[in-house]
Amino acid sequence: MFPDESACETYLAKLRWPQGFVCPTCNSNVVPWQSSRGRLACPHCRHRTTVSTGTLFDKTRTPLTTWFEAAWHVSTAKNGLSAKTLERTLGTKFRVAWTMLHRFRVAMVNAERKQLSGTVEVDETKHFYVMDQIPSSDNFGFIIDKSVSALCFLTASFKYMDDLK
Hints:
This protein is α+β, with helices and mostly antiparallel strands.
C-alpha cells in the first residue's frame, strides 16, 4: 500500500490537510512551495513545515515506510509486540525499534478518555498452570489447575457476574 516515501508523505498530507494545505502560522489556504528536504513553504509568510511536523514521526531519520510497517505490525499483533521482535521483523537496530514502540504507546494513551457506557464486551483468557507432576493416566502425569481471568478497565454492569469468577 505504501511502496515508497512519497506515497507515505501523500497519505499523511491528505490526513493532515483534507481540504488542502493550510499554513500553521498564517492560516492561509494556498498551494505551498516545495522546499528542500521535503519541506513545504507558505508563499505568504514563508513558514516552512513538513507533513510529519507535530506527529510521532517528527524529528526522526527512520523512513516513513518503516514507520508505517511498524504501525501495521503493532496494530495487528494479538499478544502485543516487544521491541526485540520488532527489531527482527523490520531489520532495524534495537534502539530504533524501542523508540518506535515507545512513541506508538505514548500516542495511544488518551488521558481525557470518558468511561464506557452501555453494553461492554469483555474478553477472557484461560491460563493453565502445571501444579505437580504425579503418575496419572489422564493429564499425562500432570495435575493442571485451570483458571479463567477476565480483564476490564472500566465499571460496567454484566448480566452474568458468575461468568467472571
